[in-house]
Automatic annotation (TrEMBL):
PANTHER family: FLAVIN MONOAMINE OXIDASE, LYSINE-SPECIFIC HISTONE DEMETHYLASE 2
Cofactor(s) the protein needs: FAD
Protein's name according to its UniProt entry: Monoamine oxidase
Natural source organism: Plantibacter elymi
Keyword terms, alphabetized: Oxidoreductase
Classification via Pfam families: Amino_oxidase
Amino acid sequence: MSASDEASTQSPEADTRFDTVVVGAGVAGLVAARLLAAAGRTVVVVEARDRVGGRVSTERRDGRVTDLGASWVHGVNDSAVAAAADAFGMRTVEFTVGGYQPDSRPIAYYGPDGERLSDAEARGFAEDVHALDATLLGVVAESAPDASYRDVTEAALALQDWDAERVQRVREYLEHRSEEQYGAWIEDLAAHGLDDDAIDGDEVVFPDGYDVLPRRLAEGLDVRLEHVVKGVRWSADGVEVTAQGPMGEVVLHAGSVVVTVPVGVLQSEEFTIDPPLPEPVAGALSRLRMNAFEKVFLRFERRFWDEDVYAIRQQGQESRRWHSWYDLTTAHGSPTLLTFAAGPTAVEIRDWDESRVVESNLEQLRRLFGDRVEEPTEVHVTRWQDDPFSRGSYAYMTVGSTTDDDDALAIPVGGVLHLAGEATWTDDPATVTAAFHSGHRAAERVLGQSIPIETLWRDESAVPVVNPVR
């Protein structure tokens, strides 16, 4: 008898009672479920989407692979995600973005007049950014609890002996960095919002798609797709999870629950936790927000930009909406530029159709490259703000938040309710790495013991095949 046949013969009561219910089949949820299953616990994963992966979403069209959500492993040194990807046989291509770096990669800078900066001018600008960042470390350390990233960067700029033009160019850069790193306007981001902005080792992307990772993690698990969780009730006796599935309402009972939905869903009226989250968890959640951050992929018949550059950046007033384009040609196998609509720009273009987004981009590219710019042959514009199961791309720290809020969000509630996901991990939030480690932590807390994270890929046979993804 197959695993699926065996599951279908179980009584309805047996099919709704588990040791642990995991809400969300993103990376955090799958890691937690896989480790719990490996430890012998009965686990079910309920997922609102018709696929696993959450914000790891790969589109395959006409033989082309495009990661619409997460794309990078930000720093492969001692990375559990990189180790898992390697064990799962996932091909990688080195593509280091380095936290919106000003240099260290060939970057073509274009000044406010649309002319490319000379190598000397580009080096001078990068040196200004490095000088500002060196000053910024001390300013952030001494900042008030309610300081914004704008407050601290302006204070650091005031300490430089620069003319107005140099100040403005670096100010623009800091605005763009805030948007590109966290999808938030500089005045809305907490002063400590970029404290985690450190990369250890090369960064890589996956030419065959990042979604291979969650699909491999899901193998052998009981994952129930198209089950939209509406509410979680908890008490000292256990938990009750109510979901709307394809066949109607389902109520699942368990001794514990791991909730991995994004901050935007946790804060919505459509998802309830009863009793409500206590302090300090509730306070931490209230100080986080989902960002506005969209990807725009532009594929072309031929490359019209210089082949020796990794990124194209423009400065000045024209950079307010579109400022950086990344050359993904090596990773995608055809001439491709990626740009981000972040913060105010993402909000502005939310109601634009695809053609308007493209034309707005081409207008700026023509400022820099003239008649060489052709119409793209293929376009992808993500719409994470409109996704009801994410409500944005990832979370950021609002003014008044501290780095402690990420860990506070993960404090176990009543010994039975655990929150996990990218927003609950302090060291590297807003990444797959954060989701990965938060799922590991949640599993250990449910078990009340440590479990090696390598279990995820070194002992696959330890995960019993309970049910196929369904």
